[in-house]
Write a structure and sequence with these properties.
three-stranded mixed sheet; three-stranded antiparallel sheet; two-component regulatory system; mainly alpha; 11 helices; single chain; 58% helix; Arc Repressor Mutant, subunit A
Length: 266
């Protein structure tokens, strides 16, 4: 089976057929297992995720039925044997990912390899592989199950993982001198993340190096206004320094955008 959480929940069998559950409660159960693979989740935790603070008196029995249904979807016949991917482990259950594929796991592998390529000095290879990894996203992670505290928290962590990785890919490509090529993409990204300082920093750098300093200063005004309206904050010292460097035409792209190596994902 190939599991997907980097977008709406997906499940594809070995023949390429989609077999994700349609019922929301089954989706919630499967998604909880996928964001915590190989770790035991208690019966209490799973009941809380599925029913919130008002579980029915039959919740434990119903959970057992849902577990059986998921096993059947996985082609395991509802078995409780050690051959099942979902094992009973006091005080609850554990989902063993071994033998299956996961878009998040593949993304993590590619991102980590991109970090090793960067460390070895292969900036172009790192940027190319990171772009490949980012294409695994099919939209907002867990888009159709952001309805419980645990899954919402997991989705937000994945949101941050996505934009931080995207920023890193932009950083690598700017280092390679692709400023003019990236301007349009960065404008779109700044529109999607109007108060994300690093995105606007990269947009300002790309515009300046593309010979468009006036637009670079407008980009600074845009995030300054967004920060003021949303949180009453001013841009960081770093971003203000970049504005001054553009005004004085003394900008050095390498000095204002230090290279921070990619870290492995826990």
């Amino acid at each position: 089976m190939e599991f997907g959480i980097l977008g709406p929940l997906s499940l594809v069998d070995s023949d390429g057929r989609s077999c994700a559950p349609g019922a929301l409660k089954l989706k919630i159960l499967l998604a909880n297992f996928l964001v915590r693979p190989n770790r035991t989740m208690s019966t209490h935790q799973l009941i809380e995720e599925i029913w919130g603070g008002f579980p029915p008196r039959t919740a434990t029995t119903a959970l057992q039925v849902y577990i059986s249904n998921i096993r059947k979807i996985l082609g395991e016949g509802g078995s409780r044997t050690e051959q099942s991917s979902i094992l009973t482990r006091p005080p609850g259950y554990v989902f063993e990912l071994a033998g299956h594929g996961s878009d998040l796991h593949r993304f993590e592998q590619e991102r980590d390899e991109a970090g090793r390529l960067e460390a070895a000095g292969d900036t172009e290879g790192a940027a190319r592989l990171l772009r490949t990894a980012l294409r695994r996203w099919r939209g907002r992670a867990l888009a159709d199950v952001r309805c419980t505290p645990r899954l919402t928290a997991a989705a937000r962590r994945l949101d941050e993982l996505y934009i931080a990785s995207y920023e890193k890919s932009i950083e690598l490509e700017l280092t390679m001198g692709r400023d003019a090529e990236l301007v349009g993409e960065l404008y779109a990204l700044a529109g999607e993340y109007p108060s994300r300082e690093r995105v606007h920093e990269f947009l300002m750098v790309a515009l300046y190096n593309a010979g468009r300093p006036g637009e670079a200063l407008q980009a600074y005004m845009s995030i300054r206004n967004a920060l003021s309206e949303q949180s009453g904050l001013a841009p960081s010292h770093r971003l203000r320094g970049l504005q001054q460097a553009i005004l004085s035409r003394s900008i050095d792209v390498l000095s204002i955008r230090p290279q921070s190596p990619m870290r492995s994902i826990a």
